[in-house]
Amino acid sequence: MSNTELSTEAKILEAANSIFLQFGYHGTTLQQIATKAAVNTAAIHYYFRSKENIYSIVLSNNLSQLLDVLNHHEFYSAHKSSAPFTPDVTQNKETERIAWFLINEIRTNNQFIREMIRTNDKINNLITSIFSYPENIEILQQLITSQFSKIIILDLPGQSDPVERALKLNINN
What we know:
Helix content is 70%, strand content 0%. It is mainly alpha-helical and 173 residues long. The chain has 2 domains: 1-49, Homeodomain-like (Arc Repressor Mutant, subunit A), CATH 1.10.10; 52-172, no CATH class.
């Protein structure tokens, strides 16, 4: 569905998802979301009331999507004699973006995320479902390792800084 076919609320949510995944909570402004959604900030306040409310929806949606991927049988790789079945999520670019977003948000906005987990039952349940299982932690580690491998292998001209490479890789994927 093209952006023009979406309802105003859906356009705002789609834009918020894109901006929050790229810049995180503290790096995102309502004006950025409004501009990307082609609405005014009053529309964001009308539908979502606050930046925190729209962020909690985006966070919850991304946690749900990550949990679905972790639990979905299609992503499981072929069984090897001694290796357990593990989802091959390293080829899913959207899942990689979500994992980077979540890990970065937990790292940079620790107190804020803790408060959201404490006060939002849906987010609390999703976080618990994802991080309670060692195999999910291993899969998230695979995602991050895969990203770092791509950064190391990638030869981006004029970008010797690994952080710049990571950001460029994350933005382009």
